[in-house]
What does this fold into?
Amino acid sequence: MQAFGSDRVRRDGEQVTLLSRLDKGWTARVEKTYTSAEFPGTAVLWEERYFEVVLAESMPQGGVRYLLEPWREHHAMRFTDRYDAQTEEQRIEENRLQLQRQKARFSANALALLTGHLPAIVQNQLGNELGILPVRLTFISILGELAVIGGLVLLAVSFIMRREPIPLPIIAVAVFFGIENSVRFFINWTQSRPIGSVLGFLFYLVFHLITGRGPSPFASEKGWAVKITEAPPEVATRDAFATREAFVTLLTPADQARAAQRYGYDYRHDSTKVAAMILIIAMIGVVSSYVRGALISLIVAGLLAGEQILRLVAFRRGPAGSMLRFLVRPFVRKLL
It folds into this structure.
């Protein structure tokens, strides 16, 4: 029997073992038990003959091992697939496109502190193309801008402690960012839609005028002028949870387990990224506090940085909470 692509085949009597680098999505046979009936695996048409997938297991070195047997005629075919050159070419191309989308999605999420400042129409386009939540991009950028505001406040406090006048640019920038961030947070939280920032709009406008790429920041999206019915309560709840998932990573392991039962939450998705972001901000706070001689803020930033290092190590065993849970729990209490 012929294998296609990078697959390898081995035949032992009526049984056929197929080693595949890619997961083909075939389901294995479920054996009969005292309380449940037998369910046949995927019926695969291979060289004009049907085979049943008896076993599908991941291999330690990567890839999937499939064990197939000739189809038993007394079973009904619930799931069918083909195994030939054309089908494998399509499957390889789909996997390549999926990996490309995953890479772009990871980049967009990793750069959410920046992409969340882009105009709403651009964030929605990213969401449609990459399968990410534009509302979440905006929310993460709001948290980043909040950290900048906090740094400006600490800088202003250092001038006050030295009995020096606070420079007007620092006051102006802090007030501007504070008002803008409050407006963006209110719209993002109450209307569950993305919204850009002034700086993000200006940078994207220059980029669009120079390159001509991307939608116009002045364009209006279809649907905004049309009344859209509200999402079902279950869908709205899951969307709200997805938007606040970064907060959940800071809760206690018990709360995270409750979120896993209710929403299928997996702490491994975002916990490391959130902890790393907090660690970077805390280290910046440590350095700035040490330079200014601010003892209290130095201790707080040091404790926060140390906690994140311990959490990053603990993630190998399971979820880990943070001292910041007392600040974020009010935002997710209703979802738990």
Notes: The beta strands are 8-12, 15-20, 43-45, 50-58, 64-70, 80-82. Residues 250-336 form one domain. DSSP finds twelve helices and six strands in the chain.
